[in-house]
């Protein structure tokens, strides 16, 4: 079996193949709920990116790659053999429509702000992803993709189209090509943000929420593995267990 076939098999495996009853419950819940935002617990825990001192030290190295898309979604410049592209949620863009991307939109910016146009290369609903080619490339390092989760995850995002912030939470499991994370707040505008591991690699793309303010439920996104398996642009070599 090729690496691409293996990724596809993993991404589209049936719910019954997901390990553990808790992961099956996550998958079953995800079939019925599709929300653009979700606050986990009674408090909204979003930290301005330049004030973040949490468990994911790699945030400092990866936050430059995060971009505000059309003023209402988030995305991440990712590494790819065919050339870096911005990865976001498919529901954030429409093929053929212009895309405006702004880097370094944050409180107390620590670099030059770049605003550039882009074009949608690929877009899908399942997995919910899109790839955007930039007219101008920022002088930043793109984020590599991974198949390896960590116990803690971070989502670097632009909630409500505002300055870049970080939310941190626990990895909750994976099933049917989706990844789940708990106690990790997102809002409208967080769609398309990358889900980053402790090692600083992109595990997936945030797309939906199912957290509640009493602390139950989880937010979720599509795994990088499922996206690579579906993509014509991204190749097997663009993702690794690292």
On the 0-100 scale, what is the average pLDDT? 86
Protein structure class: alpha+beta
> What is the β-strand count?
15
**General form:** globular
Unreliable stretches covering 5 or more consecutive residues: 1-17
Structural topology:
Blueprint: H1 3-11, H2 21-32, E1 47-48, H3 59-62, E2 66-69, E3 73-78, E4 85-88, E5 99-103, E6 114-124, E7 129-134, E8 145-146, E9 152-157, E10 165-175, E11 178-182, E12 194-196, E13 202-208, E14 219-223, H4 224-230, E15 239-240
Parallel strand pairs: 8-15
Antiparallel strand pairs: 1-10, 2-3, 2-5, 3-4, 4-7, 5-6, 6-7, 9-10, 9-12, 10-11, 11-14, 12-13, 13-14
Q: What does the model show?
A:
The structure is a single chain. Helices cover 13% and strands 33% of the residues. The chain has 242 residues and is an alpha+beta fold. It has a domain at 3-48 and 143-226: Trypsin-like serine proteases (Thrombin, subunit H). A hairpin with a 6-residue loop joins strand 3 (73-78) and strand 4. The longest helix has 12 residues, at 21-32. The radius of gyration is 16 Å and the shape is globular.
